Amino acid sequence: MTTVTKAEGAPAPTGPDGFLSVRDLQVTFSTEDGPVKAVDGLSFDLHRGRTLGIVGESGSGKSVTNLTILGLHDPLFTTIDGEIVLDGKELITATEKEMERLRGNRVAMIFQDPLTALSPFYTIGRQIAEPYMKHSGASKKAAWERAVEMLAKVGIPNPGERARDYPHQFSGGMRQRAMIAMALVCDPDLLIADEPTTALDVTVQAQILDLLKDLQREFGTAIVFITHDLGVIADMADDIMVMYAGRAVERGTVDEVLRSPQHPYTWGLLNSMPRLDSDLGTPLSPIPGTPPSLLTPPSGCRFHPRCTFRDRVGGNRCTTERPLLAPDRSSACHLGEEQKRTIFVEEIRPRLG
Ligand code: SF4
Fold this sequence. Notes:
Subcellular location: Cell membrane
Keywords: ATP-binding, Cell membrane, Membrane, Nucleotide-binding, Transport
Bound molecules: iron/sulfur cluster
Protein name: Oligopeptide transport ATP-binding protein OppD
Distance between the termini: 51 Å
Pfam families: ABC_tran, oligo_HPY
Organism: Streptomyces cyanogenus
């Protein structure tokens, strides 16, 4: 059964300042091997019309966070603590009926694989029209017209005809567009896009990202954009939150985090990105080691087993003391502020070019 408890001492939601406000979110799964804390004390705000990029390796907690916001976690095996407030409404304590009303109406999600969202048994037009009919009370005819209009908006040629097609008659890129049309048909206030372009080729990816930006301008939607690709984040997001092993380790505006990253994990992510100007055959520089098991996460800073800078922190703080993330621009690392700046300028930036 889902267990819900309020986070003691969690700061109050920020009201209109944070349209989506997450405070001290903790998500724990019960597994056969014991509890797994997939998200551990996450707080962030997202404002209307802005895009927050969440970046991190698999298992960092980024997708779990967003499934939790949507109320799509498995209630039998999940314990949730903390607060998720959307436009003044607390979501963790919302009933399933309330969440159902929110999903597809005020909050929508785009997945990496459109086939998980689209049913093979119904036409594309019907799948876009139905949630619109359900949430707006529109007639069947009006909902169909709206579906055709949405298909036109996302750039499907001959939308009136193509609305009668089934998903298997669409290419991968067109299915992704259809899923975006389905997600946006009710003008949601919040859109969660989970690796929406990972499976697409570069040209279609660029088209879909442009489309999302256009639609955001038109509808004023707040977007949470989840990816492991910092290049996509640079193109899409206003703000970035970097996650590692269930915790946020760095956040700031795109400019702040990409121009002057402060956390050794972010340095590693940037350093491991392929560069257009490097010679063919130049090996990539992945972060050494692998993300930890969350059944037995490392003590102190969870990144310490992979961090090549931990010797520069005095004593054994990295292995014993959890580094905290301050509000706004900050990084959860025991290195001093001046130390981080100097390491970045003298050692990291020259490698990034
Ligand atoms: Fe590395 Fe220590 Fe900073 Fe963690 S706290 S990132 S181990 S230097």
